[in-house]
């Protein structure tokens, strides 16, 4: 197991607000919310702290515990089965789980630079050893990733360009 795939002292690393600002969407459900956390996904109506066994509804946000090798696969499988949401994962483009997720995703956004995640005490963490990927499942997620790329310059976008609807 590579050093970045070993389980750390904590899986409690929270998504910085600038990512949600760039996506510019509201979520119906945060499916991997930390159990002992007073913060929340800025625009999620409902939170689940452990949800692999629960039914998901609506447009979901997912920043699951990264854990060790292949620990993200069940989370990603559930997201793509659900078909409506955004997942945040490490950039591990050579990993089989990442390749499988990229093949299932409707769009992928590689966040520019290395995301400094937020610690439980609210402070910013150090720069991680790898980058971060956002995977889109469904039309709303594709539109959010494209918006984050084209309007807010969050990173490199790989996917279709959403059609503009006439007003």
| Helix/strand structural class | alpha/beta
* Helix and strand sequence: HEEEHEHEEHE
Overall number of strands: 7
Q: Mind telling me the C-alpha Rg? A: 15 Å
The CATH class is Alpha Beta
Walk me through the structure.
The chain is an alpha/beta fold and 167 residues long. The chain has one domain: Rossmann fold, CATH 3.40.50. The protein is 23% helix and 20% strand. It is built from four helices and seven strands. The protein has helices at 17-23, 73-82, 96-104, 139-150, and strands spanning 27-30, 44-47, 60-62, 85-90, 107-111, 132-137, 155-159. The protein has a seven-stranded mixed beta sheet, sandwiched between helices. Helix 1 (17-23) crosses helix 4 (139-150) and helix 2 (73-82) packs parallel to helix 3. The protein is globular, with a radius of gyration of 15 Å. It starts with 16 loop residues before the first helix and ends in an 8-residue tail after the last strand.
What is the structure about, briefly put?
Helices cover 23% and strands 20% of the residues.
Strand and helix map with partners:
Layout: H1 17-23, E1 27-30, E2 44-47, E3 60-62, H2 73-82, E4 85-90, H3 96-104, E5 107-111, E6 132-137, H4 139-150, E7 155-159
Parallel strand pairs: 1-2, 1-3, 3-4
Antiparallel strand pairs: 4-6, 5-6, 5-7
């Amino acid at each position: 197991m590579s050093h970045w795939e070993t389980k750390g002292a904590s899986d409690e690393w929270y998504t910085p607000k600038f990512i949600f600002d760039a996506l510019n969407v509201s979520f119906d459900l945060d499916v991997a919310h930390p159990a002992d956390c007073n913060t929340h996904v800025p625009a999620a109506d409902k939170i689940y702290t452990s949800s692999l066994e629960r039914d998901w509804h609506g447009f979901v946000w997912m920043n699951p515990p990264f854990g060790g090798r292949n620990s993200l696969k069940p989370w990603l499988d559930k997201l793509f089965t659900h078909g409506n949401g955004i997942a945040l994962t490490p950039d591990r483009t050579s990993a089989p789980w990442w390749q499988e997720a990229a093949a299932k995703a409707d769009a992928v956004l590689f966040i520019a630079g290395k995301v400094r995640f937020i610690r439980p005490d609210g402070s910013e963490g150090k720069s991680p050893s790898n980058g971060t990927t956002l995977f889109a499942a469904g039309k709303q997620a594709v539109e959010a990733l494209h918006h984050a790329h084209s309007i807010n310059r969050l990173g490199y976008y790989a996917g279709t360009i959403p059609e503009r609807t006439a007003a």
